[in-house]
């Protein structure tokens, strides 16, 4: 070769190389611009709202648009074997390619030529995410190019874990199931954190043909696809030979499972209060909630049509609501109206407010548990309360009057306290109320007011908490308000001690449970509410529409349910606390004299039984005197006596209870007598 030719060749090589680099660089720049200018679909899509219990257990989940189940997920929430299977089967170079895998396309193209048909696709997981986000097809060339472009752009915007998360949230799994968590719940009834190799294999295979491989409608296709995934996983070393062999024998699910729907009323309440939060964390205890929901269903089976039940359980030491059942069956559309949350319904509390009235009376020095009180016919204007059985017990101690739930003694105490003070105590206890009229009357003490089952639980939590009112709450992370005193701790203890002395319902052993039952007017509401050293619970039974339930009594219907609730909370009971040091533990005879017998707020103004009484002439009498002397008569009182006419003493030092008064003029005269203790009696007469 000549030197000229060699020189030309030496010049040509660098030129061709430069031209090739120029062309490659231009193509690269155009490709980069093509990717950079890609208009990405919305990456953030709505996920289902989840309601969880105190331990993070799923209580209820809500669908998104078009009734789809799409639960939020990240790779850490998914079984690692599943993730490894998915990558081995769908996209083994997922962590190394830029969104498009050229080697996968070459493989797919070669297999298609060799077999004369499409055997495997070249789509990466990122391309599948692009298709899912845009809801585009897979077969047309234009669609495939668009997926490649979006995939390349996504890889520049998101991390590999973020792309994997999008796949885990949006992959289709049959029907209205989207995402691995929705699929795991629907097909296996659990979170995907711990999947067996067989379960993981099925969930890897389903998104490729979600309807054709559904295990409930196409079990053979589902098994074939699952086994193919297991074979690929075995070859890739994801599972062992033994695990793969065992997985091939595992039976496929033959039906979809229902998503959790525990505490539906409380879940709805949480969602209504904060609809933007996709995770609602409650203080409820899932296992207890399920147990008590089953108890509620069992309770109404033997009750008349239309009767429902509500239950509230709380930890009165923390203020956390642990269980809330608004009805026996949330989905019931019959007369039971299960969709109504009866824990929030205002109902007449019957006799369940009586313990608060007694506690207030103890605090104000009106009574003591050993104080005598008289159960006898009384009237307050036109209001004449009666005991439930219509009988009267005469004199009995206050603690027994509360245990027997007598109406007249508690109305006497409420009259001394004032109904407005009772409403103020309920307000301080954070108990919402509904008053029939504008002015509270004495009837509020016997149930003439509206209170919710949750509100009644709040009230008894205050009594159980040594008289300190702490607002109950049901949302995790709630900051407790400062407790507000309503009763002294000694009065609260005395009330609890009295209620703990009640005999348990038939069939239950005594648990030293402080409890009270109540029945509203017309047998519309049957109640039982009680507490031990830690927990407080309320049971309401009745018809949501407020119609009577003939023969329904709180002691017969609600009390047995209350005692079973405490058995289900835990086998052993938290003991009630001992009496505070300042508690006055005395018998009736040992009490200070004013506390031995309840006298009422007007006792100081009332005439004592042995006070003097003028018996002649009668008050208002018209007298025609033939002379100036008027005979007057009296009884009772302690001599000597002083007689007065029109305020002027006319006789002093009298021992007899009959005398004559002289010198009275015509017209009105006021005659009075005063005994040695300063007690007096007077009448006014007309002299003609």
From TrEMBL:
EC assignment: 2.4.99.28
| Chain ranges of the Penicillin-binding C-terminal domain | 605-685
User: What enzyme category does the UniProt record give?
Assistant: transferase
- Penicillin-binding protein transpeptidase domain mapped to chain residues: 310-532
List the catalytic activities from the record: [GlcNAc-(1->4)-Mur2Ac(oyl-L-Ala-gamma-D-Glu-L-Lys-D-Ala-D-Ala)](n)-di-trans,octa-cis-undecaprenyl diphosphate + beta-D-GlcNAc-(1->4)-Mur2Ac(oyl-L-Ala-gamma-D-Glu-L-Lys-D-Ala-D-Ala)-di-trans,octa-cis-undecaprenyl diphosphate = [GlcNAc-(1->4)-Mur2Ac(oyl-L-Ala-gamma-D-Glu-L-Lys-D-Ala-D-Ala)](n+1)-di-trans,octa-cis-undecaprenyl diphosphate + di-trans,octa-cis-undecaprenyl diphosphate + H(+)
Pathway per its UniProt entry is: Cell wall biogenesis; peptidoglycan biosynthesis
Keywords for this protein: Carboxypeptidase, Glycosyltransferase, Hydrolase, Multifunctional enzyme, Protease, Transferase
Which residue range or ranges hold the Glycosyl transferase family domain?
63-232
Q: Which family does it belong to?
A: In the C-terminal section; belongs to the transpeptidase family. In the N-terminal section; belongs to the glycosyltransferase 51 family.
Official protein name in the record: peptidoglycan glycosyltransferase
Query: Which gene underlies this protein?
Result: pbpC
């Amino acid at each position: 070769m000549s030197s000229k030719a060699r020189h030309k060749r030496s010049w040509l090589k660098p030129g061709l190389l430069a031209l090739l680099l120029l062309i490659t660089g231009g193509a690269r720049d155009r490709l980069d611009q093509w990717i950079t200018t890609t208009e990405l679909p919305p990456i953030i899509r709505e996920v289902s709202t989840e309601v969880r219990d105190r331990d993070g257990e799923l209580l209820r989940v809500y669908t998104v648009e078009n009734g789809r189940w799409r639960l939020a997920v990240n790779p850490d929430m998914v079984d690692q074997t599943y993730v490894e299977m998915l990558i081995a089967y769908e996209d083994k170079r997922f962590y190394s390619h830029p969104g498009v895998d050229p080697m996968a396309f070459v493989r797919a193209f070669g297999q298609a030529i060799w077999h004369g048909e499409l055997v495997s696709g070249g789509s990466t997981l990122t391309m599948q995410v692009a298709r899912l986000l845009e809801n585009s097809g897979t077969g047309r060339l234009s669609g495939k190019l668009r997926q490649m472009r979006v995939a390349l752009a996504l890889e520049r915007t998101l991390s590999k874990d973020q792309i994997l998360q999008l796949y885990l949230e949006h992959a289709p799994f049959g029907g209205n199931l989207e995402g691995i968590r929705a699929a795991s719940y629907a097909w296996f009834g659990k979170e995907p954190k711990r999947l067996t190799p067989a379960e993981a294999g099925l969930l890897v295979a389903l998104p490729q043909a979600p309807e054709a491989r559904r295990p409930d409608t196409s079990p053979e296709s589902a098994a074939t696809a699952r086994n193919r995934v297991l074979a690929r996983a075995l070859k890739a070393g994801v599972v062992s030979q033994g695990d793969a062999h065992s997985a091939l024998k595992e039976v496929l699910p033959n039906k979809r499972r229902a998503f959790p729907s525990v505490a539906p009323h409380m879940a709805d309440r949480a969602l209504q209060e904060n609809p933007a939060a996709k995770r609602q964390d409650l203080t409820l205890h899932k296992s207890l909630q399920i147990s008590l929901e089953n108890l509620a269903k069992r309770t109404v089976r033997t009750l008349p049509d239309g009767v429902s039940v509500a239950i509230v359980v709380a930890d009165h030491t923390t203020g956390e609501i642990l269980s809330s059942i608004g009805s026996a069956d949330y989905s019931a559309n019959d007369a039971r109206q299960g969709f109504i949350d009866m824990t929030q319904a205002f109902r007449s509390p019957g006799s369940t407010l009586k313990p608060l009235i007694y506690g207030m009376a103890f605090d104000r020095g009106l009574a003591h548990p050993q104080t005598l009180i008289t159960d006898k016919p009384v009237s307050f204007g036109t209001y004449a309360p009666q005991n439930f059985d219509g009988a009267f017990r005469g004199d009995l101690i206050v603690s027994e009057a509360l245990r027997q739930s007598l109406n007249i003694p508690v109305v006497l105490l409420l009259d001394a306290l004032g109904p407005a003070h009772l409403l103020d105590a309920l307000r301080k206890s954070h108990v919402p109320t509904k008053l029939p009229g504008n002015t509270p009357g004495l009837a509020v003490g016997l149930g003439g007011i509206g209170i919710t089952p949750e509100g009644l639980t709040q009230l008894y939590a205050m009594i159980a908490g040594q008289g300190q009112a702490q607002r109950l709450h049901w949302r995790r992370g709630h900051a407790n308000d400062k407790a507000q005193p309503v009763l002294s701790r000694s009065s609260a203890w005395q009330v609890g001690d009295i209620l703990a002395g009640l005999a348990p319902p038939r069939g239950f052993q005594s648990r030293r449970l402080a409890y009270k039952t109540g029945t509203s007017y017309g047998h519309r509401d049957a109640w039982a509410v009680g507490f031990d050293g830690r927990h407080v619970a309320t049971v309401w039974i009745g018809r949501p529409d407020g119609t009577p339930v003939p023969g329904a009594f709180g002691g017969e219907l609600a009390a047995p349910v209350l005692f079973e609730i405490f058995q289900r909370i835990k086998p052993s009971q938290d003991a009630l606390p001992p009496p505070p040091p300042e508690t006055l533990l005395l018998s009736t005879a040992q009490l200070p004299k004013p506390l031995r017998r309840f006298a009422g707020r007007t006792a100081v103004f009332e005439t004592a039984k042995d006070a003097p009484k003028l018996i002649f002439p009668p008050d208002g009498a018209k007298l025609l005197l033939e002379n100036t002397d008027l005979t007057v008569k009296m009884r009772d009182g302690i001599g000597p006596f002083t007689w007065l006419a029109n305020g002027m003493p006319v006789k002093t030092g009298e021992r007899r209870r009959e005398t004559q008064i002289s010198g009275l003029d015509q017209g009105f005269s006021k005659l009075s007598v005063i005994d040695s203790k300063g007690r007096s009696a007077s009448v006014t007469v007309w002299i003609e």
